[in-house]
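ENTRY TYPE: paired fold submission
RECORD: A
CONTENT: sequence, then structure tokens
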Amino acid sequence: MSAKRQAQESKSVPVYVVHGAEAFLKRQAITEIIDRLLGDADRSMAVSEYDGSAASLELATVLDDLRTLPFMSNYRLVIVYDADSFITRYRQDLEEYIENPSSTGVLVAECRSFPGTTRLAKRVRAAGEIVKCEQLAARSVPSWLVDRCGSVYGIKLDPPAASMLCELIGDDLGLLDAELHKLSLYVGGRGRITVSDVKSLTDHYREEKVWGILSAIAAGDQSLALQLWEEVWQTDRAASARAISGIAFSVRKLLNAKRAQESGASLYELSRMLWCDERQARAEISAFSADQLEAMLCRLLEADVAAKTSLASVRSSVEAFIIEMCSKGQTRRATG
């Protein structure tokens, strides 16, 4: 059966409320509603979207849109994103609308919270659908990945590979799903994703974040550098064993590029050495002198020794290094 035929035979309800803390699951739920009701109809002609957090959004605007006859489709979908404040402002009016809704307009409200004991919730439940999208517990994410990989991509994901994905990337379902898509293309017709596949394709995330710490230090952005370090710490259980060496590797890479520049290497060659574009390579190489980079390596060695002799934790040592280097960078820029 074609998507268009399915849409023609799908029975609509006048209102859907999609709520909860998990943004990816809410996006998926809204996509499924659109696909189910519109099939292959032109979305630009059948879907309107509004920002519910905007104080300027009036209920009359939304209702007029809902009552506009659809063109080249059976239904007209009006989606109000981030609708918490919109629902609060117009709760009674929405209750009245649901009692006498448009026959062809479908309201989809996306919000974070939608208490089930309110009169509005009871009316939505009676006339429409409420879709709850709560954030998954961390322990449940690997099994969710296994199920999604099979149902959406038609590929078996080994449970240890699912656990490794979570360790490398964290519990952001959107990022994890994007990685599943890449992995499904990577393994092709083999039909199975293993730990080896995950290591081959996704371990660069931690390396990119570690390199990002150095880039943030070069820009003097202490807040961003500390944020990236926190992400490395939270998403990499082996961070305590390799964090300092990872940052030191990035510093050495930049130092080698600096020396290559002094020897006459082209900007293109330098960008290849740093795995970035020429503009970024120029900015990062100019942020430090070779002496400063060598001093950073010495400081990292001291931090590594302190962590290994229990004089300080790896986490606090790296944080102290970031704060110190950003402070020195600000001093360099102020006197430069």
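RECORD: B
CONTENT: sequence, then structure tokens
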Amino acid sequence: MARPKMPIGVQTFEKIVKDDWAYVDKTAVMHELANDTTVNFLSRPRRFGKSLMLTTLKSYFEGRDDLFKGLAAEKLEPSKENGGWQEHVVFHFDFNAGNYKSNGIAELHTRIRCVLKPIETKWEISVDSDDTYSGRFANAIKVAAEKSGRNVVILIDEYDKPLLQPIESGLDEPTALKDELRGFYSVLKSSDQYIRFAMLTGVTKFSKLSIFSDLNQLRDISFDKKYAAICGITQEELETNFAPEIETLAEENSLTYAETLQKLKDTYDGYDFTGAGRKVYNPFSTINVMADSKFKNYWFQSGTPTMLIREIVNTNFDVPDLENDVSETEDAIMNYRPGSDDIVPLLFQTGYLTIKSVSPVTNFFTLGFPNNEVRHGFYSALVRYFTDADYKIEQVYDDKKDF
């Protein structure tokens, strides 16, 4: 029997299931999330499976029981005959797709319109030319809930992309765009009576955006131990789902099976997002190494951390401190403040640092590099920035003491 293909670049649950791509079953924890909470926020680094999580929730709330055959949620959810797999109207905003560098508000409106227009057409919702997008959003939620007979579901992928992209490009903080987003997200509070479930995901938690203070019903599950492994791959999931690929990886690299497991752990494991000690592998790097049978820095090579390097330079951050681990309070690492002299929260939220331990007395978090991929890639990026040289990863790691 042929092995499933590795879903590199595939982030849609329906496509993964229908086209027989490899899938690590996370539907049990997603089922718990969908039925235990209402309005949520989850922060995870880029390429950690947030988009796949949201499309899985989308299929669940659309009542697509046909896509969950053989998965954990099939056993947990009652049948349609017994009230399960109810179909809801789903607003699925994907802000990751836009380019917000030059005219961010116009691009934001385009992304919003792509979602609202089909819903407004289906439910015959009239729109006036002077209606604001936040007003259209609120009205669409209300009408769709009333006409469908069920409260709606709202999924927002990469809520912070419109703000992060200009900042990463070295532009001033987009104040007008921030105000526009604040008004848009505030609809989640004013429309609470019509919402069955809502989920916002992103890389950072902008403390200055104030949507989190405005949305007092929003639950931040980023540090919730129950959802520690909702994104990422645990050791058990790795060995259960990828045993044949690990065997091939061992053969291709002249390693034993045990040596291969250890190298995988050293290179791609080590992310603890909650301090609970439940570590996960980087899913992007994991599926790539299984597909290629070669150990490479896949995640780090998929994007250059230009904003991080610039912030390190601007704040005169003492890079060697990272090798000795650094300490922060929970509140500090949960909130990113643009322009702050403390860039440790940004390093944590973007995946370059992870929680190593938590003091039971002071509740201080000790953070450090999660694995060798991040450590080597991070120093490589610094060397290229300061020397304009393309060093080999091994050289960078050996020379890191010079920074």
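NOTES ON RECORD B: Residues 306-402 form one domain. The radius of gyration is 22 Å.
STATUS: closed
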